[in-house]
Amino acid sequence: MLASVLSATLDGLDALAVSVEVDVGPGLPSFAIVGLPDAAVCEARERVRSAIRNSGFDLPPRRVVVNLAPADRRKEGPAFDLPIALALLVATGQIAPDAVTGYLALGELALDGTLRPVPGALAAAEAARGLGARGVLVPAANAREAAVLEEVTVYGLGALRGAVEHLAGRAPLAPVPAARDDPPPAGAPYPDLADVRGQPAARRALEVAAAGGLNLLLVGPPGVGKTMLARRLPGLLPPLALEDALEVTKIYSAAGRLPPHAGLRWHRPFRSPHHTASAAAVIGGAGRPGEVTLAHRGILFLDELPEFRRDVLEALRQPLEDGAVVVARSHGTVRYPAACTLVAAMNPCPCGYRGDPRRPCTCTPAQVQRYLARLSGPLLDRIDLHVEVPRPAAGGALGGKEPEPSAAVRARVLAATTRAAQRRAAWNDHPPPRGTEAWWPADRSALALVRAAADRLMLGARATNRVLRAARAIADLDGAQAVTASHVAEAVRYRVLDRPAALDA
Amino acid sequence: MNFAAPPPRRSERPGDDEVAASVALGLLPGVGPRTVRRWIDAAGSAAAAWRGLPALAAGHRDLAAVLTARAAIDGAAVVARARAQGLAVLVWTDPCYPALLRAIADPPPALFVRGTLDEGPAVAVVGARAATAYGLAAAERLGFDLAAAGVTVVSGLARGIDGAAHRGALAAGGRTVAVLGSGPDVIYPREHRRLAADVAARGALVSEFAPATPPRPEQFPRRNRIISGLALGVVVVEGAEDSGALVTVDYALDQGREVFAVPGSIFSVMSRAPHALLRQGARVVETAADVLEELGVTVVPALSPAPAVPEGPGGAPEAPAGAPASGEHGLPRLRSADEGRLLAALAAGPLAFDDLVEALGLPASRVGALAGWLEVAGLIRVLPGQMLMRAQGGSGPSPAAPRRGREQTVGED
Ligand SMILES: [Zn+2]
């Protein structure tokens, strides 16, 4: 007898509907799975057999063929265990055929029939919504994640037995309530800027980076708190919008990185891969999203930037520019979102003491130059703000003013980003000249100062562009419609590594 | 100490034979400048000493090696090659040989010179290669002020303090001399090639080593006797306990030169050498006046100081008719007395940006804008470690000074 149950497999971040067809017929007892399954799918045979028996159902010794359609797409992972088991129970007459109609099912079966969570439940729920499915059957640990979408009924299942009881109507389950929790209070899960004493230059750079969505490089000796500063940037950004939170949740769901029973992921990611990480781990590869995608709408923090592998740094340029990354896989490519803010940190020189007021740097200019040269120009060009975080002078005030908390900075950032959005919204009617979108409008004095700065500090065209981008963010923080010379003057300071003088002395 | 009288000044410059012989004597292996000077004194001239070498060197511990080398050395060829490169060759018996250097116990028999040496007062400024921002600022300030007072600033063209002292003197439009530990045409470190060219144009590059001699470590302590020998006094700016600057101090004391030291931070290991010297009685230097007063140098104010502020930007946009005139530097101005306050805060020396924010009590955004503007205007410089220092030669517009022209004013106050 023939039976089929709807399921889904991940295709990038989205899910592709898969029809799981089971034919149980005469012949020598066997169990075959066809339709481009991978090893994990093939192992479903053993898990499904044991789970069915251990759940108190029968598996007659017949010839079983499982087909996963469409047959031309590779199917991955153990998520087909549940639909295969259900289809098998229909084909052997243990569930009525129309009981499973219209349901999309996925989940990994343990040998005793309990259901284990799988990646991509949210994408599968989205596919189910697109198909107008009557409900989605997922492992209980995935239920809240699948239930963040509206217009989809989600059932969380503990075990195969419970699924059958529900489908047969003997013990119907209540749908999982929508898991779209209210957003947490602003800034809730992030460390606070109030923990950082002094360092006004770095604090200001964080604020400008937050307002403009700008990439930031912190240069300073070990132990001055560069990581501490970086971790405070997410708390300065405006809270995630619902659609962004949905997208981030979907990424983490697809990567199998949501904790069990997690609902909507409201907080901005903060990813800090180690400098030994491979290009596949950072950029993505073999059809899997990398750290740049896991940092989507959040922060990608690269500590010890010059120590990262050269191919990793080179490969970072494209996602930083496009906010998305194209990853190769066995058939074709897949595009992942990667709109993250890069925060990088590095020592000022190999010995770490360049510019330290208390200890001399023992590096030769050639050594410093080689160290800085590990950062390719094109990568530095994509970092908007370079800021030095020096060791505080000996005897520097430990008291002083109470440091400003993140909430105060976030309020200014929110006002700035709101203004920027309003300004861009008005462009529908009056678009700015091509190529000026990053800073338009600016007054004459601002452009005069940009040219003078480019001239005297020998900044290249790309660096000059970054100055204008930073000046735009500074103007927005200032509540100014047009960028002025004062905004440009502050922005000029954020190009330290572009200056020939950076290698002086 | 042996203060033998300098040879009688001859009215004429020495002939080619004498120059070639002096250079040749300097190239003899295992024969130091003291011995060469003794031989020249005994023979009456370098040429006579070269000719009579077998007799003069009779008592030398390795006579055979000296005589073998003598046969192989062609002083005239070295001189010809040097002159072909535009180098002057000054020998000990030349009236143009620096008088102070001639009087030390072991003057080089010949000096290779690119540029010009004069008889004006000279002060050496030396110190560590791995200097702090404070040390660099101090050396540059001293170099500037000494040169502006008409004193030639002598140093060794090394990284760190030496380079800063030369740069300061050049910024003042004054004279500066670099004594090299390599041939006069071998610039070390390489990144100082442009600085070396500037020094040669406004003073001299000096070396006792023949052209093309590479910079060998053992040559550097030896050249330090020329640095102190050319100067009336030696100022040590920064150095660790075992600093090479202390070698120069030892020579200076042997040569009867005055020794000065610039105090540093008690937190910095680079203050060890100057503080040790101060403890032993070196004179404290806070300003160039401390040096000039002690040496009894009459200040000749203002040579031809470099322009206080760089020229207007080449790429400055043309102001459309009716536009407000831009400020005095061809840059849009930030209208504010804070600019003057910032410059005043840096008058005492370089300051980290973070400390400046604290000192001025202004928001970081405002201090950032002021500092960025002043940097573009060439009034301050940014050093590693976000250290800001006033650019030498630019005293900067004082807040009280009337400003020329109508200004395009921007900024928030
Ligand atoms: Zn170093």
What does this 3D model show about the protein?
The complex is a heterodimer of chains A (505) and B (413). Chain A has 19 helices and 18 strands. Chain A has 505 residues and is of the alpha/beta class. Chain A has 2 domains: 2-168, Ribosomal Protein S5, domain 2 (2-Layer Sandwich); 193-504, P-loop containing nucleotide triphosphate hydrolases (Rossmann fold). In chain A, helix 6 (140-146) links the parallel strand 8 (135-139) and strand 9 (154-157). Chain A is elongated, with a radius of gyration of 28 Å. By secondary structure, chain B is α/β, with parallel strands linked by helices. Chain B is 38% helix and 13% strand. In chain B, the strands form 3 sheets. A 9-stranded mixed β-sheet of chain B has the order 1-2-6-5-4-3-7-8-9, sandwiched between helices. Chain B is elongated. Mean pLDDT of chain B is 82; it is low at 1-6, 301-329 and 394-413. At the A-B interface, helix 8, helix 17 and helix 19 of A face helix 8, helix 16, helix 17 and strand 12 of B. Bound molecules: zinc ion. Zinc ion (ZN) binds next to loops of chain A.
SSE order and pairing:
The complex is a heterodimer of chains A (505) and B (413).
Chain A: E1 2-11, E2 14-25, E3 30-34, H1 39-42, H2 44-54, E4 63-69, H3 81-91, H4 97-100, E5 103-105, E6 108-109, E7 115-116, H5 121-131, E8 135-139, H6 140-146, E9 154-157, H7 160-167, H8 200-212, E10 216-219, H9 226-231, H10 242-254, E11 270-271, H11 279-283, E12 284-285, E13 288-289, H12 291-294, E14 299-302, H13 310-322, E15 324-328, E16 333-337, E17 341-346, H14 365-373, H15 377-381, E18 385-388, H16 406-425, H17 444-456, H18 461-477, H19 485-492
Parallel strand pairs in A: 3-4, 5-8, 8-9, 10-17, 10-18, 11-14, 14-17
Antiparallel strand pairs in A: 1-2, 2-4, 6-7, 12-13, 15-16
Helix pairs in contact in A: 2-3, 5-6, 8-16, 8-18, 16-18, 17-18, 17-19, 18-19
Chain B: H1 16-26, H2 33-43, H3 46-51, H4 53-56, H5 63-72, H6 75-84, E1 88-91, H7 99-102, E2 110-115, E3 122-126, H8 133-148, E4 152-155, H9 161-171, E5 176-179, H10 193-201, E6 203-207, H11 219-230, E7 233-236, H12 245-254, E8 258-261, H13 272-279, E9 283-284, H14 288-295, E10 333-334, H15 338-345, E11 351-352, H16 353-360, H17 364-376, E12 380-383, E13 387-390, E14 409-410
Parallel strand pairs in B: 3-4, 3-7, 4-5, 5-6, 7-8, 8-9, 10-14
Antiparallel strand pairs in B: 1-2, 2-6, 11-13, 12-13
The complex binds zinc ion.
